[in-house]
């Protein structure tokens, strides 16, 4: 299974950016799929994820600003980032976990939010 993340770049605070994560596998084969991020000198943290059954989970700091969505036909998950803040600057990683708990990571895409 491969995960290909894209869409990162430089964005101004208050702007918007959309990340994409395309998987070579079948999106329905995953128990969860979503986004993590790692800022400099910080631990990787969950940002937004689809859990089993299709429910979503967000880290508190992005609630109301970021939205995770998916296109099942394209086996792709998206992260719409609205009103990003400088503290959202990080490398964003796509993650997928299979029903058998195999853990897959994409290569990461850098998001830089300027103030």
Ordered list of secondary-structure elements with their pairings:
Layout: E1 3-6, E2 9-12, E3 16-23, E4 30-38, E5 45-50, E6 56-58, E7 66-71, E8 76-82, E9 90-98, E10 103-105, E11 109-114
User: What structural category arises from helix and sheet content?
Assistant: mainly beta
Largest sheet: 7 strands, mixed
**Percent helix among the residues?**
under 10%
Quantity of strands, as a count? 11
Distance between the termini: 37 Å
Number of helices, counting only DSSP H or I runs of 4 residues or more: 0
Any idea what the shape is?
globular
Q: Strand percentage, roughly?
A: over 45%
What number is the mean pLDDT?
A: 95
What is the H-and-E element order?
EEEEEEEEEEE
Extract low-pLDDT stretches.
Answer: none
Overall radius of gyration: 13 Å
What does this entry look like structurally?
The chain has no helices and eleven strands. The protein has strands at residues 3-6, 9-12, 16-23, 30-38, 45-50, 56-58, 66-71, 76-82, 90-98, 103-105, 109-114. The protein has 115 residues and is mainly beta. The strands form two sheets. Strands 2, 4, 5, 6, 9, 10 and 11 form a seven-stranded mixed β-sheet that branches. Strands 1-3-8-7 form a four-stranded antiparallel β-sheet, with no helix packed on it. It is globular and about 40 Å long.
């Amino acid at each position: 299974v491969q995960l290909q993340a894209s869409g990162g770049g430089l964005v101004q605070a208050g702007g918007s950016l959309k990340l994409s994560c395309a998987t070579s596998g079948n999106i329905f084969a995953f128990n969860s799929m979503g986004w993590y991020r790692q800022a400099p000198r910080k631990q990787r943290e969950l940002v937004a994820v689809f859990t089993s059954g299709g429910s979503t989970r967000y880290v508190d700091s992005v609630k109301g600003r970021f939205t995770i969505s998916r296109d099942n036909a394209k086996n792709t998950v998206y992260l719409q980032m609205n009103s990003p803040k400088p503290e959202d600057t990080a490398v964003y990683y796509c993650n997928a976990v299979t029903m058998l708990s195999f853990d897959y990571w994409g290569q990461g895409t850098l998001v830089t939010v300027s103030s």
